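Repro:
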Amino acid sequence: GIPVVITQAPVNATTPEAGTATFSVTATGAPPLHYQWLRDGTAIPGATTDTYSLAKARVTDNGALFSVQVIDGASTVQTSSEAVLTVIPDTQPPSLVSATNLTDTTISVRFSEPVSADTAAAITNYTLAGGVKILDAQLSSDQATVVLTTEPAPYGPVTLTVSGVRDASAAGNPVAANSTASYVHTAKLVIPVKDRASGVDWDLKWSNPNQTVSSDPLHLSAGKWGGQTSSQIRFDLTPMKGIYSSIYSIAIRLTQQVNYWNGRQSGVLEVYRLSTANAGWNSYGTWGTMDGTNAWAGGTSGAMTPDTDYVNTLLASVPYQLTPNPVGTVYDLVIPAELATPFLETWINGGVNEGFLLRANGSDLGDNHILFFADGPDAPQLIVDYIPVALPELSVAQSGNQLILSWTAAGYILQEKSDLSSTSNWVDVQGGSTSPVTVTIGQDTQKFYRLKMP
C-alpha cells in the first residue's frame, strides 16, 4: 500500500494568555487515515482529527511540545516533528467599562476582560457615592460582569468607584486604583402594547394581527416578501402622569416569532412616529386602511409615505438576522430622551397619541421580512427609563380643634375620607389645591387625608 507521508507537519504557535492555539497536519497514505495528537509525548484524550486546538492557554502551557501520529488503513504509524507553543503572559490590567442599574437595588458592572472570582466578589472593592451600602457581589458566567446588590440608591447621577479587582491572568493584574464609572439611576416602567396593526401590499385587506387561522399565527411584520410589509403599534402612556420628573430613554421591545427570507438574510428595523393625520388607526388596520375602513393619510400605503403617513425623523433602528433562524431573539429599539420627551409628554397628558410605525430599511431588501409576536407574553412592550418625581411630604399640626395640613410640592390636591374599608370615595377638601389647609375636627370624628395628583 501507499505509505503514510506527512506533507505538512505542525508548526510552532504563539498565543496570548487565555487565547487559543491551533495546530494542524497534512498527510497522505492508504485510507482511512487516523490521527492522535500528543503533548510532550503523551496522547491527548479525544484529539483525533487533523487539527488540534488548545483553548484558554495558560502561562504554564508555555514551551509545551505538540506532535501528531498519523495511522493509515494498514495501521502504519508516522509521527510528526514537534511544534512548540509559546504563551505570552497577560501583563495588561483590566479596565472598568461601565456600570448600569438593573433595578433599584442591583447594578451591572462590566470589565474589559475576565476577572478573578475572589476579587470580584469582595464588596469592599466597590464604593457608591453618597454612602449607599453594597450588600453583595456576584461574578456572572461571562467572568467579566459583576452584579452588585445594594441598598436603594437615590435616583439621578451615580458614581461607582472600584479598586482591588484583578484579572484572571496568572499575574492577577489589578484594575487601576479608584477607577470610576458613572451612570444615571432610573426607575423602569414596562407598558404593554395597546393597539397593533400590520399589513402587506399584495393583499390590501390582510391584517396579520387579526388572522386567526393556525397556518398563519398572529404576528407583526416588516420588510419585503414579494411586496412591502409594515406594522403599527401604540402604547398607553397615561400611567406615567405625575410619577416622573424627567425621562431618560424609552425602548420598544420586540420578540422575533418566525421569519421568511429568500436571498437576503438580514436587514435593519426602523421606528418612526406616525403622523397626526393617521392617529385614528386601530387594531383593524391593514396595508390599505388605518381602521378596516378608512385609508391611511397616504392612501393604500401601509402608512409608509414619508411626511404624510409618518414624521420623517428616525427615532431608533436595530439590525436583525434571519439565519440561522433566531426565533425568540429580543430586539430593543432605544429612543433617546431628546427625541422621545416632546411627544411622550403629549401622550402622557392624554393628548393625541399617534403611535409608532415599524418598517424595514428602505433599501432593496429582496424577499426578506421579519415577523414579531403580536400577542401573549412576548407581545411588544414599551420600557420607560425615568427619574421619579419626588413625593410630597404631608405635615400635620394641631391648634385646639383645628388641624393645619401642609405639604411640600405643588400640583397636588388634598383629599379626605372617614374610613379605609375601600380605596374609593375619597373627597376633595375645600381649598385643598393649595398648601396649607386648615380643617376643623369634631370630638368623635375620624378622618384620613391624602394628597393626589389630579
